[in-house]
Amino acid sequence: MTERLKGTGVALITPFLPDGTIDFACLEKLVEDLISNGINYLVTVCTTSETPTLSEEEKDEIVRTVVRVNRGRVAVIRGLGGPDTRELLTSLQTKDFTGVDAILSVAPFYSRPSQEGLYQHYKTVAEHSPRPVILYNVPGRTGCNIEADTTLRLANDCPNIIAVKEASGVMNQIMRIINHKPADFSVISGDDALTLPLLAAGVDGVISVVANAFPKEVSTMVRLARNNDFAEARKIHLQLLDFTQACFREGSPAGVKALLSLQGKIQNCLRLPQVPVSESLMNTFRDLIQQ
């Protein structure tokens, strides 16, 4: 499975209609667009999907739609995490994982567990998960950091934990994991702006937000870097950098949804508390597209 996590994964947005319902027709077209432009795998019902605003029924229908449209062409990852270990185990026992290759499980948020608590949480999840588990470390959102030694301990102790998506932005921490991890454990960038330097340091790829709007460019950049052609990869990285930085200026996924709407791929609709970006940022995107 770790071979299928090398390259570019996309953290899928959820397209909405103006009345707040999910635009499944747009979702299907987006999945086709991403696959046809060279991405390696799809990550469903993740942070970028606005999952806190989705019902369980909506999440399940999104996953079923992505699996159906995908038809086994690329790997499909399902986001499944939360602050209550027992509730998460219930989901692992009751959800339908047909067509799902692995689970991306965010660190327990709000409660800020100790490193031992994080270890025991993920060890328990791995023991009960019907699919391989990818750790997701994003302390800016969860309020807690999975330290390098905890990630390495889980990587060595739990065969069903196969990777970590690292979005801490702490280069020394990420490089320590790369340096000491088991050979069959993948390290994945969770930060678009840091993907190229992290590829140089040895990560296996990225789970990207910006690739929703620029799948060909991001997947090409990652492919070039993984083939050690950093001169060409750097050109694409720098071309995308202003877009990448602007995408997160007023929150995610509001930025990338604004871009997708300017590309004519979705309507610029979000669910509260997310709101569309300001007109000033929209004008920035328009200027960048013209350039």
Verbal overview:
With 291 residues, the chain is an alpha/beta fold. The chain has one domain (2-227): Aldolase class I (TIM Barrel, Alpha-Beta Barrel). Helices cover 46% and strands 13% of the residues. The chain is built from twelve helices and eight strands. It has an eight-stranded parallel β-barrel with strand order 1-2-3-4-5-6-7-8, surrounded by seven helices. Helix 1 (24-36) crosses helix 2 (56-70), helix 6 runs parallel beside helix 7 and helix 8 (195-201) packs parallel to helix 9 (215-226). The longest helix is centred in the last third of the chain and has 18 residues, at 230-247. The model has no long low-confidence stretch (mean pLDDT 97).
Alpha-carbon distance between the two ends: 40 Å
CATH fold-level name = TIM Barrel
Could you give the order of the helices and strands?
EHEHEHEHEHHEHEHEHHHH
If strands are numbered along the chain, what order do they take across the biggest sheet?
1-2-3-4-5-6-7-8
Largest sheet: 8 strands, parallel, barrel
Average pLDDT for all residues: 97
- Report strand %: 5-15%
Task: Output the number of helix runs.
Answer: 12
CATH class membership: Alpha Beta
Could you give the count of β-strands?
8
Tell me the structural class: alpha/beta
> How many domain units?
1
Low-confidence stretches: none
> Could you give me the name of the CATH homologous superfamily?
Aldolase class I
Helical fraction equals 40-55%
Indicate the multimeric state: single chain
Give the name of the CATH architecture. Alpha-Beta Barrel
Shape: globular
Evaluate the radius of gyration: 18 Å
